[in-house]
Amino acid sequence: MAKQRGDGDLTPLEACRLLVRMTPTDLRPPAAPDEASILALNEGSVRETSPLDSAGLRALLGTCFRARVHETSQEIDAFMIALDETARSPSPNFAWFRRRHARFVYVDRVVVAERARGRGLARALYADARLAAERAGHGLICCEVNVDPPNPASDVLHERLGFEEVGRAILGPQKTVRYMVKRLGSP
Fold first, then answer.
1. Measured on CA atoms in the order 54, 87, 19, 3, is the torsion positive or negative?
2. For the chain, what is the domain count?
3. What is the CATH number of the domain that holds 88?
4. Structure pTM?
5. CA–CA distance, 35 with 108 (Å, rounded to integer)
6. Other C-beta atoms within 10 Å of 76: how many?
7. pLDDT at 26
C-alpha cells in the first residue's frame, strides 16, 4: 500500500509558505522576560522532555544553534531549542549524535502548550529549524523521541515530517528513547 501524505509532510516550499503565514511576532527568538513561561511550559511536558531550571535554560540558550518561541496575544504557547555539533551540552542524547555525525542540528526540545496543540505549531517550529539548518549548510536534523514513557503525538509528528529511526537507548529504568534523523534536501 502506498504511503499517503499526511498534513505534517511538508516540502521545503510548503514549509516556507507555513512560515510566511505567521507574523513576525508569532515566531521569534526568546527574550529574558520569556524565561518563566518557557520553564512553565517545559514543566508541563517534563515527562516527554526532561527537567529544566533557570540555569539550565540559560545554558541551553547560550549555546544553541536556534531557539524560537511562538507567541499569541503576548502569551508563549510553544518553544523550540536546537543545538548544532559545536554546542556544549551534557545531554546523553546529544552526545549520541555527536559521536556519529560531524555536522548536524539536534532538536533538544519542542514543547507546545496543551491549549495550543493541533494548530501546527510544532511543524512550524521544525520548519523554521530546517530552513535555518539548510542556510547554515547542515544536512541533518536529529532528535530523540520517547519509547518509554510513550509519546504518541511526537511519534506521529516525526513520522509525518519524514524522520527515520537510526538507534535506541535505555536511559534509565523507565526511560527509553529512539534516535531519529531527517536528512535535509529530502521532502
1. negative
2. 1
3. 3.40.630.30
4. 0.85
5. 17
6. 22
7. 82
Question: Which grid cell is 39?
Answer: 520553564
Looking at residue 25, its pLDDT comes to 45
What kind and span of H or E run contains 143? Answer: strand 140-148
Q: Containing domain of residue 175, as a range?
A: 12-183
Whether 1 maps to a domain, the answer reads no
**Residue 71 backbone dihedrals phi, psi, to 5 degrees:** -125, 135
Provide φ and ψ at 174, rounded to 5°.
Answer: -130, 35
Q: Is residue 6 part of a domain?
A: no
Return the bridge partners of 181, or none.
Answer: 142, 164
pLDDT along the chain (187 residues), means of 10: 42 54 69 96 91 96 97 91 96 96 97 93 96 96 95 94 96 93 84
DSSP secondary structure string for all residues of 20-62: HHS-TTTEE---GGGHHHHHHHHHHTTTTS----HHHHHHHHH
Question: Does 4 reside within a domain?
Answer: no
Assigned domain for 83 exists:
yes
For 106, phi then psi, to 5°, come to: -110, 120
